[in-house]
Amino acid sequence: GNPNEAATQFSIAYDGTAPTATVSPADSATGVALDAPVTAIFGEDVVEGALGDITITGATGVSATLSEATDTITIAHDAFASDSYTVTIPAGAVDDLAGNPSAEISWSFTTVGVVEVSIDAPATATADSDFTANVNIGEVVDFDACNYDVSFDASVLRLDSVTSGLIDSTTIPVSALNEITTGTWRVVQNVAGTDGVSGSGYLAVLNFHVIGAEGTSSTITPSNGVLS
């Protein structure tokens, strides 16, 4: 009889796994820059699904695009403020090449912008007089502590003391006051017993005495600020 020919064998791999992504900013990240990109990068080739349903809770003007070359969803939005945001990419936003839809992806992060600090001092003061100057601060989120330097002409002004400030009805006490160099003092403040203060107000009150003669002048400048 005729000999049997060997059968040709082959196998088919079944892919039933939904595509997954690495997100940015990372989940639970804090101190995120206001202009940080919001992306989700998938670990395999994907094609577009229901991208139009992506949301960022707390943000407006949200839209999304998929780069199939890099398998990356980039989410555009109107300008962030210093706040907490939650991104939700719904199930089915993309499909892998086997037709598996992505599962829902949701993550949150907190942004922080450049916080403005300024000295609110009178334009003029007479010789041998006292005056106060507030260290004003713009909007902060979950503020706990800070340190900053205050500089001035020590031949014109003498810093006698620094007293507590106020943000959103919360007292901001002064923990330490140290002279770094002549005319430059470092102020350290810490809000104890809270989970953080949000709002705006003033960090502290600077209490000065004018020791310079009439006609002399000095600026009062904050610098080297670190907030947490």
From TrEMBL:
Keywords: Signal
GO MF assignments: carbohydrate binding
InterPro entries: CBM2/CBM3_carb-bd_dom_sf, Cohesin_dom, Cu-Rt/internalin_Ig-like, SbsA_Ig
Chain ranges of the Cohesin domain: 115-221
Domain SbsA Ig-like: 15-111
GO biological process terms, semicolon-separated: polysaccharide catabolic process
Keyword NAD in record: no
Protein known as: SbsA Ig-like domain-containing protein
CDD domains noted in UniProt: Type_II_cohesin (cd08547)
SUPFAM superfamilies tied to this protein: Carbohydrate-binding domain (SSF49384)
Tagged with keyword Signal: yes
Coiled coil: none
